[in-house]
């Protein structure tokens, strides 16, 4: 099918199913790999991708040291210069796009989404109040960011397209929030639900599906308690219970969502009247410690309705994730990690040329979720994996669109600082295992290319997938080398290779003592032109390294201002802390913390876990999802902590 063909939201007169039009590829190896050579090629791609991260981290480091010992100076200097320039560009993205992202957040939280809907979607420039007075069926509620409210009963599932020619209106969407949870305290679950209740149409247009693990001892009691406490607050509240030891199901968030989505789709079809191709249903996945912005669903509704049919069913929507909910009680090392993780996600979403990836909590149409057969039960990186899966099965057409309404959640936290640091280390090791998605994308690209059949269709598919593939590689490469390669390059160049280059300013002097390597070039067997070339490479490398370090400090200090954008949603009395309540003082403190302890955070929660993960994926691609610590989350006798 031509990628520009409009996707139909309904099945009419026996036409192709929308789910098949949305996701034309099945990516089934037994069908695509129909020859011996194709199967051999698949195994080669898989093996290469599984060992590539290991050889990059371990082999790359060993190769640099070997080159120094063997005096292959040009190779070391060239590779270090290119690496330093790449890392400088990464830091520049964090500084520039991070600042732009904060500006986008500041502007977006002030939007009147319903007024924008009237103007941009319906073409009505009149105010929402005028529209309300003329629309008998859409009274408005509240003030400020107003949106219409409905009766408590959803409209009949066929009325939308039967009466409005398939056009979906503001009141027609049903948002279903899936919340995977395991041993999470009730107070935390209530916090997430209270945030959902701020949606003005929550009683009629918002449903909640809790995804429990059957092996959690009090899961059923929690579900019943939630249903009783929040009866009438949402369109409906339901729960799914993921059975243990299912074939092919690896304990984790993804397998939990896989089961919950199947149960939810069945309930929507049999009890609620929404079939898998109903364009009015939007699925939102959030972690159980997440607090969505009060206007997130208004913003999501606006973007969903404004999009064309093809964009609507090919798009995942992503809010910036901010790990500041328990900012005041986070130890310094954990707080540094929270700052950089939050700013990195914001900067990536704000970068117009970035290939956005879903992270932690996101939304997508019911049609797209069904088109890709829901979530896979055997992968640990659920969010990245769902991004890759949707993009692969749609031949690279799916995308992630940011909605700059921050979602707040907790960083791992235990009863004391050391336990909190160790819990964050556990989470970092789990996040690093997302490196296995590089193998998944590479192998599925190969299968998809074989399934496409036609050369140009396959080439187009690979071309569309390359940005995502490159994004996965770049993120893990940067995090994996961040703590070790910059200081290693500085040591190698300034101590072991000092006699093979000069400072650029010394090259312009005539005195032989100014540039000792130049004067002794013939004696050590190095030509003068090589000394000059080496000197220029060192010149660029050192400045790129310095700018990279400065960029990280500046970007980290942005966290002080980012904090104040969301300070009213932070847990605890932040205003009672004289340093925190003053943006300038908090900026100074954050700058000092990042400058002094930033390296330790990047090593403990970034590079070391990546090196461990790179070794582990050589032997297996299936890992148990070990939940991070949370105050009040207790093990239930014999549990392994896996979700």
UniProtKB/TrEMBL annotation:
Glycosyltransferase 2-like domain: residues covered: 282-482
Keyword Acyltransferase: no
InterPro entries to which the protein is assigned, alphabetical: Glyco_trans_2-like, Nucleotide-diphossugar_trans
Ranges where the record places region Disordered: 127-154
Alphabetized UniProt keyword annotations: Membrane, Transmembrane, Transmembrane helix
Pfam families, per database record: Glyco_trans_2_3
TM region positions: 51-74, 80-109, 461-485, 544-564, 584-608
Protein name, as recorded: Glyco_trans_2-like domain-containing protein
């Amino acid at each position: 099918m031509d990628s520009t063909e409009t996707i139909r939201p309904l099945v009419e007169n026996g036409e192709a199913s929308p789910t098949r039009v949305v996701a034309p590829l099945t990516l089934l190896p037994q069908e695509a790999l129909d020859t011996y050579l194709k199967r051999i090629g698949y195994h080669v791609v898989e093996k290469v991708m599984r060992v590539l991260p290991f050889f990059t981290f371990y082999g790359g480091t060993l190769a640099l040291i070997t080159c120094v010992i063997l005096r292959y100076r040009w190779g070391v200097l060239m590779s270090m210069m290119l690496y330093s320039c790449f890392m400088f560009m990464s830091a520049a993205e964090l500084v520039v796009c991070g600042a732009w992202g904060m500006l986008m957040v500041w502007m977006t939280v002030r939007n009147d989404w319903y007024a924008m809907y009237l103007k941009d979607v319906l073409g009505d420039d009149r105010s929402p109040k005028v529209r309300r007075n003329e629309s008998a069926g859409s009274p408005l509620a509240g003030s400020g960011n107003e949106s219409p409210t409905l009766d408590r009963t959803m409209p009949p599932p066929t009325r939308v397209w039967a009466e409005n020619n398939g056009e979906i209106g503001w009141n027609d969407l049903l948002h279903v929030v899936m919340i995977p949870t395991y041993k999470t305290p009730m107070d935390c679950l209530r916090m997430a639900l209270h945030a959902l209740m701020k949606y003005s149409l929550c009683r009629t247009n918002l449903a909640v599906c809790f995804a429990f693990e059957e092996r959690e001892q009090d899961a059923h009691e929690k579900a019943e308690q939630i249903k009783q406490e929040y009866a009438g607050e949402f369109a409906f509240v339901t729960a799914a219970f993921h059975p243990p030891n299912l074939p092919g199901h690896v304990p984790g968030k993804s397998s939990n969502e896989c089961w919950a989505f199947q149960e939810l789709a069945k309930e929507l079809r049999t009890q609620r009247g929404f079939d898998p191709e109903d364009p009015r249903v939007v699925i939102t996945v959030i972690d159980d410690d997440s607090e969505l912005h009060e206007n997130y669903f208004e913003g999501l509704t606006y973007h969903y309705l404004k999009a064309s049919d093809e964009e609507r069913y090919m798009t995942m929507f992503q809010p910036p994730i901010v790990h500041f909910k328990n900012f005041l009680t986070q130890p310094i090392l954990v707080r540094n990690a929270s700052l950089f993780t939050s700013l990195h996600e914001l900067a990536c979403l704000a970068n117009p040329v970035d290939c956005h990836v879903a992270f932690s909590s996101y939304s997508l149409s019911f049609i797209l979720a069904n088109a890709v057969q829901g979530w896979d039960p055997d992968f640990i990186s659920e969010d990245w994996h769902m991004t890759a899966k949707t993009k692969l099965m749609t031949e690279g057409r799916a995308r992630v669109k940011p909605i700059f309404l921050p979602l707040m959640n907790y960083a791992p936290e235990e009863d004391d600082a050391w336990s909190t640091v160790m819990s964050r280390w556990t989470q970092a090791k789990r996040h690093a295992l997302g490196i296995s998605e590089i193998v998944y994308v590479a192998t599925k690209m190969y299968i998809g290319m074989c399934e496409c059949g036609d050369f140009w269709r396959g080439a187009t598919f690979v071309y569309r997938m390359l940005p995502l593939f490159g994004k996965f590689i770049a993120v893990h490469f940067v995090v994996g080398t961040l703590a070790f390669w910059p200081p290693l390059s500085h040591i190698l160049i300034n101590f072991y290779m000092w006699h093979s280059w000069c400072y650029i300013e010394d090259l312009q002097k005539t005195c032989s003592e100014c540039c000792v390597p130049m004067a002794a070039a013939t004696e050590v067997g190095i030509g003068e032109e090589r000394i000059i070339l080496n000197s220029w490479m060192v010149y660029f490398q050192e400045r790129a390294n310095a700018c990279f370090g400065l960029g990280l400090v500046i970007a980290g200090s942005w966290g002080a201002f980012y904090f104040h954008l969301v300070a009213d949603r932070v847990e605890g009395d932040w205003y009672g802390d004289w340093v925190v309540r003053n943006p300038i003082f908090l900026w100074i403190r954050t700058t000092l913390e990042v400058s002094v302890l930033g390296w330790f955070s990047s090593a403990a929660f970034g590079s070391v876990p990546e090196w461990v993960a790179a070794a582990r994926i050589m032997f297996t691609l299936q890992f148990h999802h070990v939940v991070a610590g949370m105050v009040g989350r207790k093990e239930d006798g014999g549990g392994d902590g896996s979700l």
